[in-house]
Amino acid sequence: MILIILGIIALIIGFVLVKQPNEQADKVGKILYVIAPIFILLGVFTSCFKTIEPGQVGVKTLFGKVDNDVLYSGLNFVNPLVEVTGFDVRTQTYTMSGDREEGTIKGDDAIRILTADGLEVVIDLSVLFNVKSNEAPRILKEIGTDYLDKIVRPVSRTAIRDNAVSYDAVALYSSKRDEFQNKIYKTIEISFAKRGLQLQQLLIRNVALPASVKATIESKINAEQDAQKMTFVLQKEKQEAERKRVEAQGIADYQKILSTGLSDKQLQYESIKAQKEIATSPNAKVIIMGSGKNPVIIGGN
Fold this sequence. Notes:
The protein is 52% helix and 22% strand. With 301 residues, the protein is an alpha+beta fold.
């Protein structure tokens, strides 16, 4: 377009100079007559072709009127008077965080909400979404190119605040966190779809409770851990006591068997068997048999 404008200006100047009686001016005017069409042709040629980068689509606008036909990535032939506005249709991430270096907007941009029990909870949130290619013309007409500030940010923050009032602070922090995330996902998804955006994923990155509530939760967790530890110790002591009881019962049963089950004759018989085995062994020995119950062994090797 710039080349076309330069060509037209050169053509007008050349026309004026040719009308001058000055020979030098006439000469310059004729040169401009030659150059001007070249500029105009180059401008028309380059303006007729628009390159759309990968991951983007182009929306055509002619004198303020938006064309519903979308230009896709690659080289496209268009009217040289058309203005093309690019839209990124790849996955985009919008983060609202209390960390000054993480959020899309620098500084503390976390979402502060009031829960059902009247406590203030601070939430960090990341929204993953993309622009629908076929909806880009409607977005340009109804919203413009600043859909992040007009749609993504306010819709996400409002959805979290509206849904948080149904939960207690501790529930958001622990047992109801996934349920809460699913509810705000559905709310944001419906709102985005109405405006040409597609929600891909919603990430609750952090839930910060008030200091007093956090201290109470930590105290409760510590108490539960201590109780579990004491239960384990008691179980261990009971098992040890049961082991000792079984062992003592076994010893008592063994002693009872020995005291009631072995007679003198049986003991004498067992002694004779042992003496026989000693006598028949290959080791040299002297056995002195006396009147006692047990023999005396001399020289055993």
